[in-house]
């Protein structure tokens, strides 16, 4: 059952404001400019444009709000726009005050990632009339972004998303924006998102000519602390080993650049091993541009240049800070620091004008790739994308599908869920998140097309619904426990909708505990004890919460984690609770116990150190107790796995190596081995009575792990749809030099001889690597 509640009218006028652009064919003064000639290569056009600029004009273009250059017919441009999980007005580049007043608001990224489905990440769900692997060359966010621009409500087409930092610590307030803790999942999400937004195909390699919109991978690099116990992101110096950089923090960015072909990168506020990210030549120029082949622009986070001198004291003067970032390879400053101090740096002969020109070449190249120097964009390749495509029924259906497929069933004792669909039953809906449309959206969200709260959606299934918030707010300093108990005793079933919101976790605000806020836990326990039957507990949160007591409490029959599920999240939850959708999401992060807060959030080490008591981080290295593990998720169906076949189950390395060697450098191996492919075919059967969409996760572990080896690591995942009783086979193609490797202490990729074990669920299959 699908129910839509429109929260605001969508007004589409017959006329739209003209979008800003250069090289108007009707303007005779611009026809002679070489930078307006589309027959020329972009490199030549940019060289011509930059050569025409005065020094003051050049410097004016180095900030996010670039002013117009009227004498050349160049309009102003805003580099800062946001589209983390839907086109948003969180930055100055987008406004919803014209014919388009809203945009499709998808689930916050952490929940979308829980589907473990790269096709959904590319399309952000599937169209209602499509089969599960149906996708087209455009991505909803990219399409809606271009529509907003064509309607004259965007001052730029560069969107500062996705956030692909690793969700290293459960307290991080911005973990909700990320795809989770696994580098492989995060990298694959980055590739799917970037290809979709920019207009590439799902498989990649089809992007030619113009960008539909520009995606920007952030925050480069090792950024995952905002404000914890007085330590803030502006001053934090992330001390990271070369090993952890190589196999945890950097891989998502490498994938984003090399496979996704992102046209933007944002460098972060923090320092990494003493060097500010935006002033790190090794990071921006050597690694991103030369080693990875990045072709695009690099922006600072907002005011990240100013803090290099003003807060961190890394640069001795404002001019030195400007020199540091431009020589490092940064191109545009979100803020005004470069506007204020670049000219003085040039006059002091600290900064050659060629560095300014280099940055401008990157910036204007992206603007030209967006088609903004080709004349009226409405007459160009993306000119037909119109306001009618924003908040279309198809796009809203995609938002619902994404929410359905991400929600994770954490507990279902005695098959309490799904509840019976009887209009005559009575239902209590209790909790501060039950009727809060804003909470559903998470951060970096624009106005949604519609809003369906859990309460509203549940009311569409049951006539007799009694609502009690229980707490005045999520912080819950006091709770109406007596009222909630009295209601719980009267009804057939109780659904508690609890958890967190942006007052508890957000940008610039990390948590200091992992429990539920205030008196939420007391409210849950009291209601569960008073209810006639075991209750259903729904948690809205970005980060994990220690709900150990609810996990083992017999009066709590079912637990659902719904992240921040977006505009259609309430509908998706109700469909799952009443059995119109079979849940299949799986946790993209480890859920740690409260005791984990003893670990300093500032400790960036991934690997454990038993002698010091340091437990390590994420499922790959953490060896302590867990509330729920990475990849955990139940269903109304039971799925069985079996390895049908594995090719190349025995791999031969360099025969001249010593038999006792701990590992071998991949760079020293015969490249024929690296080109070998291991085909792993897994048979999957739905043994339940309901059809369902099910993510299949393939892990590998070393039978006898050495110091520094992961406990296990994810090497493949696919999501399949199976009817009740249906069988299917899923193939994973592994590359030994990619999937069976790790980084050594100096950050070089190595492969370890010996027995490796493939695992899907409880099924295992050995692979031997011999020297």
From TrEMBL:
Signal peptide bounds: 1-16
Q: Where in the cell is it found?
A: Secreted
**InterPro entries in the record, alphabetically?**
BXL (IPR044993), Fn3-like (IPR026891), GH (IPR017853), Glyco_hydro_3_C (IPR002772), Glyco_hydro_3_C_sf (IPR036881), Glyco_hydro_3_N (IPR001764), Glyco_hydro_3_N_sf (IPR036962), Ig-like_fold (IPR013783)
Q: Which GO terms describe its molecular function?
A: alpha-L-arabinofuranosidase activity; xylan 1,4-beta-xylosidase activity
* Any one of the GO BP annotations: xylan catabolic process
Q: Which UniProt keywords apply?
A: Glycoprotein, Glycosidase, Hydrolase, Secreted, Signal
Where's it mainly located?
secreted
Gene Ontology CC annotations of this record: extracellular region; plant-type cell wall
- Fibronectin type III-like domain mapped to chain residues: 694-764
Origin, by domain of life? Answer: Eukaryota
Q: Give the similarity note.
A: Belongs to the glycosyl hydrolase 3 family.
| Protein name (database record) | Putative beta-D-xylosidase 7
This chain's source organism reads Morella rubra
Q: What is the lineage of its organism?
A: Eukaryota, Viridiplantae, Streptophyta, Embryophyta, Tracheophyta
């Amino acid at each position: 059952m699908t129910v839509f509640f429109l929260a605001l009218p969508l007004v589409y006028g017959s006329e739209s404001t003209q979008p800003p652009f250069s090289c108007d064919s009707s303007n005779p003064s611009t026809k002679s400019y070489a930078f307006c000639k589309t027959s020329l290569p972009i490199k030549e056009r940019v060289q011509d444009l930059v050569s025409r600029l005065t020094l003051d004009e050049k410097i004016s273009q180095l900030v996010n709000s670039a002013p117009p250059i009227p004498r050349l017919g160049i309009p102003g441009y805003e580099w800062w726009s946001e589209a983390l999980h839907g086109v948003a007005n969180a930055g100055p580049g987008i406004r919803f005050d014209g014919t388009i007043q809203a945009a499709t608001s998808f689930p916050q990224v952490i929940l979308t990632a829980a589907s473990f489905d790269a096709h959904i990440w590319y399309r952000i769900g599937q169209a209602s009339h499509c089969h599960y692997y149906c996708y087209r060359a455009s991505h909803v966010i990219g399409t809606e972004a271009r529509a907003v621009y064509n309607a004259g409500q965007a001052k730029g087409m560069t969107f500062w998303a996705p956030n692909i930092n690793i969700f290293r610590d459960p307290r991080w307030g911005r973990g909700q924006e990320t795809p989770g803790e696994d580098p492989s999942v995060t990298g694959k999400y980055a590739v799917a998102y970037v290809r979709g937004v920019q207009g590439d195909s799902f498989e990649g390699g089809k992007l030619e000519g113009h960008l539909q919109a520009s995606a920007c991978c952030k925050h480069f690099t090792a950024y995952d602390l905002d404000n914890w116990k007085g330590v803030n992101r502006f001053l934090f110096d992330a001390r990271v080993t070369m090993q952890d950089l190589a196999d945890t923090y950097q891989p998502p960015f490498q994938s984003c650049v090399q496979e996704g072909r992102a046209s933007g990168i944002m460098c972060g506020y923090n320092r990494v091993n003493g060097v500010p990210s935006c002033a790190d030549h090794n990071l921006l120029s050597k690694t991103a541009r030369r080693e990875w082949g990045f072709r695009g622009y690099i922006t600072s986070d907002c005011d990240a240049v100013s803090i290099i001198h003003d807060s961190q004291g890394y640069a001795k003067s404002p001019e030195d800070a400007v020199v540091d970032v431009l020589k490092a390879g940064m191109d545009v400053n979100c803020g005004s620091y470069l506007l204020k101090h670049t000219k003085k740096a040039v006059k002091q002969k600290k900064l050659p004008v060629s560095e300014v020109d280099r940055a401008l070449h990157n910036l204007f190249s992206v603007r030209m790739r967006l088609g903004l120097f080709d004349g009226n964009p409405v007459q160009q390749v993306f000119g037909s994308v119109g306001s009618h495509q924003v908040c279309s029924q198809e796009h809203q259906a995609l938002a619902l599908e994404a929410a359905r497929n991400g929600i994770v069933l954490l507990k279902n004792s005695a098959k309490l869920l799904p509840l019976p669909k009887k209009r005559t039953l009575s239902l209590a809906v209790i909790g501060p998140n039950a009727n809060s449309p804003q909470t559903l959206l998470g951060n970096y969200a624009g106005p949604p097309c519609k809003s369906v709260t859990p309460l509203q959606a549940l009311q569409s299934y049951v006539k007799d619904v009694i609502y009690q918030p229980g707490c005045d707010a999520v912080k819950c300093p006091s709770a109406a426990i007596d009222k909630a108990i009295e209601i719980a005793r009267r009804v057939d079933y109780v659904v508690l909708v609890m958890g967190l919101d942006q007052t508890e976790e957000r940008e610039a605000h990390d948590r200091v505990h992992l429990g539920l806020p205030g008196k939420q836990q007391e409210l849950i326990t009291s209601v569960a004890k008073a209810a006639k039957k075991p209750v259903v507990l729904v948690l809205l949160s970005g980060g994990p919460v220690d709900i150990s007591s609810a996990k083992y409490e017999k009066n709590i029959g079912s637990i659902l984690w719904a992240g921040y599920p977006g505009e259609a999240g309430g509908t998706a939850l109700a469909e799952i609770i009443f059995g119109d959708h079979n849940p299949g999401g799986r946790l993209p992060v480890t859920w740690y116990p409260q005791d984990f807060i003893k670990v300093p959030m500032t400790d960036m080490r991934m690997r454990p150190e038993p002698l010091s008591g340091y437990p390590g981080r994420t499922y790959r290295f953490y060896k302590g107790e867990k509330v729920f593990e990475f990849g955990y998720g139940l269903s109304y169906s039971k799925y069985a796995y079996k390895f049908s076949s594995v090719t190349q189950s025995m791999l031969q390395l360099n025969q001249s190596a010593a038999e006792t060697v701990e590992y071998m450098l991949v760079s020293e191996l015969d490249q024929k081995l690296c080109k070998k492919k291991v085909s792993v075919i897994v048979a999957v059967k739905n043994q339940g009575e309901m059809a369902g969409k099910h993510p299949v996760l393939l892990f590998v572990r070393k039978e006898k792990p050495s110091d520094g080896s992961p406990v296990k690591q994810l090497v493949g995942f696919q999501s399949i749809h199976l009817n009740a009783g249906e069988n299917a086979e899923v193939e994973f193609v592994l590359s030994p030099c990619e999937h069976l490797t790790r980084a050594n202490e100096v950050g070089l990729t190595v492969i370890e001889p010996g027995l490796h074990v493939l695992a899907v669920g409880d099924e295992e299959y050995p692979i031997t690597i011999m020297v």
